[in-house]
Amino acid sequence: MILVFGHSGQVATELRRVGGVTALGRDAFDLRDPHSAARAIDAHDPLAVINAAAWTAVDAAETAESDALVLNAEAPGALGRACAARDIPLVHVSTDYVFDGTGTTPWHEDDAPAPLGAYGRTKLAGEHAVRAAGGPHVILRTSWVFSAHGSNFVRTMLRLSDTRDRVSVVADQVGGPTPAADVAGALLHMAQALRDGHRGGTYHLAGAPHVSWAGFAREIFDAAGRDTLIDEVTTARYPTPAPRPLNSRLDCAAIMRDFKIPVPDWRAGLRTVLKELGH
Ligand SMILES: NC(=O)C1=CN([C@@H]2O[C@H](COP(=O)(O)OP(=O)(O)OC[C@H]3O[C@@H](n4cnc5c(N)ncnc54)[C@H](OP(=O)(O)O)[C@@H]3O)[C@@H](O)[C@H]2O)C=CC1
Ligand SMILES: Cc1cn([C@H]2C[C@H](O)[C@@H](COP(=O)(O)OP(=O)(O)O[C@H]3O[C@@H](C)C(=O)[C@@H](O)[C@H]3O)O2)c(=O)[nH]c1=O
User: Which UniProt keywords apply (predicted)?
Assistant: First the structure.
C-alpha cells in the first residue's frame, strides 16, 4: 500500500481515484505537527509515501510566509527524515514557481531555481529538506494543475464567466497546464519505480503544448461553449500580491527518458474535466 499525505486536494483526490492508496486528510494528521508524519507512517507501514499536501495559496503566502514554510518545507523535511529512517521511498511534489521565469526556453531540472515569491521560496525550501533527509526520493515539479475539484484556474474561469461577459487575463505568462490525473499517475509510477530500485532525483512533468494563461482561458471557454470575451493584458497591468514567473515552461525530457512517462496533452485533460463538470 502507498500512503498519501493529503486527501481532498486536487492531486490527492486523483490518487484516491486510481486506488491502491491510503490517503490521509488533515483530520488524520497535521502537517504542522513534526511528529505526526512518523506516527502515521508507523501506523500504516506503507511500501512508499506520496506527499500531496501543501500550502498552495500563492497570494496568501506573501503575508503568511512562516506558516507556508511550516507546511511546504518543515513538514516535508520531517516526512523525509521519517521515511529515510525506515528506508521508505518518498515522492514529493514541487512547482514551476521555484524558477524566476526569465527567458523563453523550458527550465531543465538542473537549472538554478530563484523563486520570485513566498510560495515558491517555501516550496524550494521543501525540495532542499527532502533531499537533505537522505532517503530514496523523487521530487516531481509540475505546473498549473487543474481538475474537476478544488481550487484551480479552470474552475475560476468558469465561475467568472457565469457572471461576466468579459474577463481580463494575463497573456505574457507562459507555461504548461497539467491535469491532476496525469500528475497522480506519474507519482504512483515513480513510487513503484523507487520501490524497484530506481535511484530517483528531481523531475519535471507539465502538460503540452505551452500556452499563456489567456490562451488557456480561451480554450476553457471554447471547450465549455462559453462566449465570454477575454481581454489579454500584461502582467504589469494585472497586479497580484505574489509575483509570478513569465516563463513557466518545464523541460520534461528526463521523465520520459528515465520513467517512460509521456508528456500529457492538457487539451485532452481539459475535455475530460469539463465533461466531469457537466459541460
Ligand atoms: N495547484 C497547482 O497548480 C500546483 C500544485 N503543485 C503542488 O502539487 C501538490 C498538490 O497540489 P494540489 O493538489 O493542487 O493542492 P490542493 O490545494 O488542492 O490541496 C492541498 C492539500 O494539502 C492538504 N493540507 C493543507 N494544509 C494541511 C494541514 N495543515 N495538515 C494536513 N494537510 C493539509 C489538504 O488537506 P485536505 O485533504 O485535508 O484538505 C489538501 O489535501 C502541492 O505540493 C503543490 O505545491 C505544483 C504545481 C502546481
Ligand atoms: C483569476 C485570474 C487570474 N489571472 C492571472 C493571475 C496569474 O498570473 C494567473 C494564474 O492565476 P491563479 O491565481 O489562478 O493561479 P496561481 O495560484 O498562480 O497558480 C499557481 O498555483 C500554484 C499552487 C502553482 O504551483 C503554480 O504552478 C500555479 O498553478 O492568471 C488573470 O489574469 N485573470 C484572472 O481573472
Answer: NADP, Oxidoreductase
